[in-house]
Amino acid sequence: HTRLQGDWSSDVCSSDLLEIVAMAEAAGVQCAIGSNVEWDLASSAMAHLAVALPNITVEHHAADIIGPVFHTTRCVTTPLYTGRGTVELPDAPGLGLTLDPHLMDKSQPIN
Questions:
Q1: CA–CA separation, 39 vs 70, rounded Å?
Q2: Does the pLDDT value for residue 2 go beyond 50?
Q3: Dihedrals φ, ψ of 87, to 5°?
Q4: What is the per-residue DSSP string for 29-62?
Q5: Which of 21, 34, 39, 80 is 20 to 30 A from 68, alpha carbon to alpha carbon?
Q6: H/E/C letters for each residue in 4-36?
Q7: pLDDT in tens, 22-69
Q8: Element spanning 101, H or E
Q9: Does the CA dihedral 96-32-59-38 come out positive or negative?
Q10: What's the pTM?
Q11: Exposure class string for 83-99: b at 16+ Cβ within 10 A, else e
Q12: Rounded to 10 degrees, what is the CA torsion of 97, 100, 104, 105?
């Protein structure tokens, strides 16, 4: 097993992630995606990438895009999580989320 790891939300930009996934695919290596404590916006971007890139094989390696569950409030008006342990990608433009600056001010990570 080969493991390429990076917190792409802070360490690796999305173009780097696309390059890493392409290199892995060329080498016959499947990719997984996971998170730390990103807010809904980064988690939405990660979920979109997981759906868009066929070499991120969530059917074989579960995606643990769980960042928003660590926050006491959301920074968006519509959360990604359904309450059934799944993420539903919004169909609105862009990342599909509406940022609420007032909620951002109130949001604090759980210690």
A1: 9
A2: no
A3: -110, 135
A4: --B--B-SS--HHHHHHHHHHHHH-TTB-TTTS-
A5: 21
A6: CCCCCCCCCCHHHHHHHHHHHHHCCCCECCECC
A7: 999 999 998 888 877 788 888 888 888 888 888 888 878 777 888 777
A8: helix 101-106
A9: negative
A10: 0.73
A11: eeeebeebeeeebbbee
A12: 180
Q: Are the C-beta atoms of residues 21 and 56 closer than 8 Å to each other?
A: yes
Cβ-Cβ contacts under 8 Å for 45 (sequence gap 6 or more): 9, 14, 95
Q: What is the per-residue pLDDT for 28? A: 92
Instruction: Output DSSP code: residue 104.
Output: H
Amino acid letter for position 32: A
Per-residue model confidence as pLDDT tens digits over 66-105: 877 777 777 888 877 766 777 788 788 888 888 888 877 7
Q: What are phi and psi of 41, to 5 degrees?
A: -65, -50
Q: What is the rounded end-to-end Cα distance, in angstroms, of the chain? A: 33
Residue 82: the pLDDT is 65
At residue 10, the pLDDT reads 47
